[in-house]
From TrEMBL:
Glycosyl hydrolase family 4 C-terminal domain boundaries: 197-412
Example of a GO MF term: 6-phospho-beta-glucosidase activity
EC number: 3.2.1.86
Top-level EC class as recorded in UniProt: hydrolase
UniProt KW keywords: Glycosidase, Hydrolase, Manganese, Metal-binding, NAD
UniProt xrefs under Pfam families: Glyco_hydro_4, Glyco_hydro_4C
PROSITE patterns per the UniProt record, alphabetical: GLYCOSYL_HYDROL_F4
Membership in a protein family: Belongs to the glycosyl hydrolase 4 family.
Name used for this protein in its record: 6-phospho-beta-glucosidase
Cofactor stoichiometry and binding remark: Binds 1 NAD(+) per subunit.
Signal peptide, first to last residue: none
Amino acid sequence: MTTGLKIVTIGGGSSYTPELIEGFIKYHSDLPVREIWLVDVEAGKEKLEIVGNLAKRMVKEVGVPIEIHLTLDRKEALKNADFVTTQFRVGMLAARGKDESIPLKHGVLGQETNGPGGLLKALRTIPVILDICREMEELCPNAWLINFTNPAGMVTEAVLRYSNIKKVVGLCNVPIGMEMGVAKLLNVDHSRVRIDFAGLNHMVYGLDVYVDGVSVKDEVISLITDPEKSITMQNIHAMGWEPEFLQALNVFPCPYHNYYYKSGDMLEKELKNFKEGGTRAEVVKKLEDELFELYKDPTLAIKPPQLEKRGGAYYSDAAVRLIHSMYTDKRDIQPVNTINRGAIAGLPYESAVEVSCVITKDGPKPITMGELPVAIRGLVQSIKSFEQVAIEAAVTGDYGTALLAMTINPLVPSDRVAKVILDEMLEAHQAYLPQFSYSMV
Ligand code: G6P
């Protein structure tokens, strides 16, 4: 009988893979990973080879007995997996560039996860994740699916509603980034900070913030109004908050809230960046090229610090911390995307929400957060409606449903603009949207 865990990472050729490997190395004494299968598609073959070889060097360097396998054969990889992690991007960075730039050309923020870009990303990604679920049912029915692929909230909900896989958790580094940000701001160890998270992916709020069990929410709220102290991510140009606004809001917003409470300013900034240096996709492409050059170095056997310039910092901490707690039935509290089951009142029972959960071997158990404060409830519900309609469009390939999703997105100003953007985006992404082919003849 073989012992130890089999992990499969779909999108294994991602530049983030060294993050994950570092995490598995760090936790290896408690989390006996036997093999990691990095899977990618033909177009990602070269990147898979480069980052896969770095992964092999990383485990060899520290002498942990983890076998690294590289493959383009997803089915072969999935056989008897214990955990399947997903971090793929359908259409790669070129598709992200279109998600960001087409709306901008029409004076609208693209926002590649919750905005118009997020809609198109969902349309491309959901059919693929549902294929993966069908394969998992057959090849590893007991495995947990840990999804990091964006739009992570919608992908998780699509799996919950439209597949037979129930063992799914959606994961994001935003909450852990917020905790680390608070720890840094208050100069305390991360382990002492806890936040009551409630909301949706990239639309999550800290309802309260504690250090050693004592609320420090007021202090955090007043500190982050200073742009210098604003807690943000590498991919978001945060600008600080109006002190009176934040005090009245009285909860801790996530960096993505800049897109909703500062839409005009964000648009201005993104248009400026677009003209000067391109979209974030182009910035990331340059970073990736540099990273892959580094990864090729046969003497490199650690995660290079340059990876921290990507928005996904702390990904390994979040992912491996979660798998570790599930494997050891640790019952600690972590924020993840999971089925609501009434934890957040006013959001559908069976929808995916991002919420603090107790992590057990049977999965995350959401902590009841009750009703969201009235000032934030509407925005969260409106994004949830957008997500639900977007998921339905991805599954059915129905044009009207896609247009509805685009139009109800809070970043889109009108049905007319929604249609212009949607039509252009459907055409630009045609190769990755077979379910819409009838509407594009
Ligand atoms: C944040 C988000 C991720 C997103 C990433 C983008 O970390 O939580 O969901 O993928 O930023 O970062 P990038 O470096 O690709 O712009």
